[in-house]
Structures
1.
Amino acid sequence: FSLHTAQVSVAYTLDIFGGVRRETESMRALAESQRYQLEATYLTLASNVITTAIQEASARAQLEATNDIVRSEREGLQILQRQYELGSIALTDVMAQEATLATAEATIPTLQKQLEQSRHALATLAGRFPSETAGEHFELDSLHLPVDLPVSVPAELVRQRPDVLSAEAQLHSASAEVGVAIANMIPQISLTGNLGGASTQIGQLFATGNTFWAGGASITQTLFQGGALLHKERAARAALDQAGAEYRSTVLTAFQNVADTLTALQLDANALNSAVRAQHAAEQSLVTIR
């Protein structure tokens, strides 16, 4: 005869000692770390694009100013040559002006190289080949610095950095892995259950007297594994110490960067004020000469 059997088996391992919870916690922390690393990549890309755009605008402005200087030096050379022909000055004056003109012309190729390199860098940052440079040109006059910078405590600036948050998430994951290693050394308790029916006729599988069920519990403990579990727990603790040291290093580096930036903002502002005063003085001198 044929015996037909249908049953459902269920097994569930009790997470009494938190091994599964800590492993899930570790995976979530790693996901957060990856998300912060992605955010840091976007911020770095945006920063590089802005810096390169400013470099392009600066190189273009310097090139235009140098071309104006070269034109002025050429006009001065023509005047000195005319004066030499009239006998009012010596030949050494003309030769000195020619040297000054040659020095000014020698700076033009360097500035042109800087401008082209900035254009190529912008194309690369935009995901294009260097030959596919964009048609837009950045000018210093079109760039405007923020008038008011947000005031914040240095610790708050550090706390917002994606690299610090990523290192913190990795430390969290390493801490959870220690819990996983400890839980693997403790006995595992599982519950099992079966429910079904058996009959020589399919239509009578779940009739009265043909059904059955079973339930049970089991406890599992590794008796000997050559010290692997102990060493895995020690490795997890060593990884936690490493993650803690990397987190501390990241935080210290972030504080250094913030301190350097705040100092640079203050000193660059002083340098900018001095440059503005020098510009006004030069403009007044030029107006007086004219």
Note: The longest strand covers residues 188-199.
2.
Amino acid sequence: AFLIPAVLILVLQQTLVLGICMLAGTERERRHKGDLILGESYSNPITVLGGKGLAYLLVYGFTATYVLCFVPWLFNMPQLWQLPTLVAFVLPFLVASIFFGITLSFFVKDRESCFLLFVFVSVPLIFMSGISWPTSNMPDFWRNLAMLFPSTPAVNGFARINTAGALLQNVRREMLVLIIQSGVYFMLS
């Protein structure tokens, strides 16, 4: 029960990043073949980015509800979160993960390459989050590298919200990191 909340957060991030990167790879393959015609709808990148981000957020809002609420309930796992706290915490995590995925999709040239790039980092991300290995025993390089991934603050915050019933003021630092990541990855994407 102590590791599952971390894995659920990581599953959300990794499937979101993989899905975004697969869509970007497919779009690049079609564009390379001439199937995609760029028109006026692509003239404003902020509009395109906002539309894509909102579409991913709507889909993953339902997915996050299923993964974070229904799956633990199905397996009788303890859940001490309060709904307003959970929603307010998961929203910036999803936004940060979406723009993180869009940023990483720049490096994906075809739809299969994202699996080679991102699937194998899942296990190191669990360790780097600090949930299974204390961050005080990690070198500074790995601690700083871990903070580039939205799953790191989300795992720590969600673990406290889910298992200790923490409120937003108790996970203020993690929320701030997720909001900063959202802004940085939005600007990068």
Note: The longest helix spans residues 4-33.
3.
Amino acid sequence: MGTLASLLDSHHTTFMQRYAHRLSAAQRQAIHAIRRCRTLDSGECRMRCEACDHSHSHPLSCGHRSCPQCQHHEATQWLDRQREKLLPVDYFMVTFTLPAQLRALAWRYQNEMYSLLFSCIASTLKDFGLNPKHLGADIGMTAILHTHTRRLDYHPHVHVVVPGGGVDAQKKQWKKTKNKFLFNAFALAKVFRARYLQALKMANLPIPPGIPGKWVVDCKSVGRGEPALKYLSRYLYRGVIGEKNIIAHANGHVTFRYREGSTGQWKTRTLAVIDFLWHVLQHVLPKGFRRVRDYGFLHGNAKQRLRLVQWVLRVIIQAATPKTRPVVMCPFCQSPMRIVAWIRPAPKAG
């Protein structure tokens, strides 16, 4: 077995010889961050015991969103934000997938293609919500971009978390979905396909031949309340691969396991180390690209609308609990230790 950082360290030269010409600046930055994560090259935190004067240092994490050692923090942050917006309704997850014929174009024009993906999905869902035949109300949603399958292949798709209902602001009325059903997935796919292809034309992006007439959209209920949010945080914020799923490293090959979506059974895949590293790094997003976006009454600028929704649904808004840093105890006398210094890494030469 091995960690992603150790594999990058031990095979860095060979990997760069094979894939350097395909690496973006964002991917190179990710490699640098992952290799130094939780090492002295990433900086350190120095602590001292207030009772016995024992001191020691902890290396800092890199905090990069592509680092598997730092994914838990991102998931926790998302869960904390969603708890503040939690509504007593059923939640749904709608998944929009780009067809295989558009993947090469998406890889070449990532910023443009992913941005159009978000905007077309959001407008499609918003209009379905406003349509009196479906709901007749403004909905809220949180969209999360994934570019990988469980096998680590390139497969751009967006998961959208949607509370089951919408608000009629004029009537100050909440309209809920019926029978744990949001929208018809086939109808969503048809409208989304038309809008996305039109958006590509407007952006002067080359549409390849053979685009299928039917696209794939999946819509399912995921329950309600905090259990639904915890499930979604694990699902939506899993890294490209958890390091516990790298189960073997021998003879220049890596074997990893993944859970098959349709059956839930564990399966394995074996790749040459440098090909495995590329399969992971190809999913690093362009620098600054936001992979999570809120819309409707869940948008950051729609706090007044969200408060109206919470008022209509009689949600009790509790004051946020101030976050405190966990106390580190001295290994010798079990007294609290305090931080005395943050040591940042030295700047790179040149």
Note: The two ends are 35 Å apart (CA to CA).
